Amino acid sequence: MRVGNRQAFYIGRAFSDLKALFFCYKISFMELQEISDRMEIEKLVTNYASAVDQKQFHRFRDFFTPDCFIDYTKVGGISGTLEEIISYLESALKHFPNYQHMISNISIDFDESNNSAIGKVMCFNPMEDKKGKVFFLGMWYNDKYLRTKDGWKISKRIEESSWSLNAPINTK
User: Any idea what DSSP says for residue 72?
Assistant: First the structure.
């Protein structure tokens, strides 16, 4: 396709205006490494939610650092080490035949070194007890992530209760 002088002028002008817009508003772009890191962390928290829903708690060892701290007390659980949490969930969630952890609004802020980050992840958690009663939990995961030789891992997770509906426990 041949571009005439008039079309070239408008294309050049549009490009020039776009550059000026970016300069005036100081619009910045993520570097490729940050994009990759964000995608890896999003995959990490998604894989965590899938492992919980599939009752594959042993997979937590792939998502958390060995020395991590996890606190589920705000939604009726315990706090503890990775192994304590795995053991607890294997027992506690037997009482709930069906549940889902739907996550979104994944906010990630990296430190200066880009080797750690803090995150806040929204979770919508419908659950069904053995009697068929359905209830809902709305919560946030407040996380700390570390870059390890095996990729990004969660080193700290503290659940924060946001709301509940028909919950058999007090989550406030």
Answer: -
